[in-house]
Predict the 3D structure of the following.
Amino acid sequence: MRNRSIIACFLALCLGVLTACSNSSDVSRNELTYDDIVNTGIANTCLELPDSSRGTIAIESGKKYAIRDLCIEPREYFVKEEPVSKRQKAEYIQGKLLTRYTSSLDQIQGTIDSNSDGTLTFTEIDGIDFQPATVLLPGGKEVPFMFTIKQFQGTTTASADSINTSTDFEGEFNVPSYRGQVFLDPKGRSLASGYDNAVALPGLADDQRFSNANVKEFVSRQGKMSLNVTKIDGETGEIAGVFESEQPSATDLGAEEPEEVKVRGIFYGRVVSNA
């Protein structure tokens, strides 16, 4: 009996320590120091609101509004692969992210404008709005792409005089080139430096088979994204929800055809009035 009481006290002590440790993880990020965050992955996560957050944020005509501290955290990655048979349709295959701790977009800000038809438009201005990432598919193929929200313009699907849990911003954004203009490929070719064609094959410089690899391009492509607001704190102006983005992958400065990449995850931001 005595041993049982000792064991019970020991288990109670361990349970209390674990409970204290679990509660410490709920501390606001603003209360953490650099040493508390570095190499933990916390900086790559977005803040979240409780599931009970179901308020509204009124958008008054004549006032200017903006979204600050917008954070977008991807959690699922898919790449569209062509089917083996022509009778089948192309499907998205889920992949695994190879990039560590640098996948989220953060500190993004933009404006909210009221349109003549009553809809609202969110326009992204600046912030940490792009991150290079690579997805590993089940077959071993690696697909690099530039996850971004640059110059996003998302408009609500219906007229609204407030932001609520039914607000969806849908629109397009620009996808910058994954490679810079001075990036050298394995043959030393580049757009602004290096060689114009493969040195080992000078007689085939104009061959159509090598034109895509020889003639480099530095272009921006288009992607589309939807931000679906699901949680709102009307007192603080905080919003949170889920997003889905579709965009092209990297092309190695035009040497390859872009693939379609789909990204899903969560986001967080604050709606403020500039009036």
Notes: The longest helix spans residues 2-24. The chain has three helices and 13 strands. Confidence is low (pLDDT under 50) at residues 14-27.
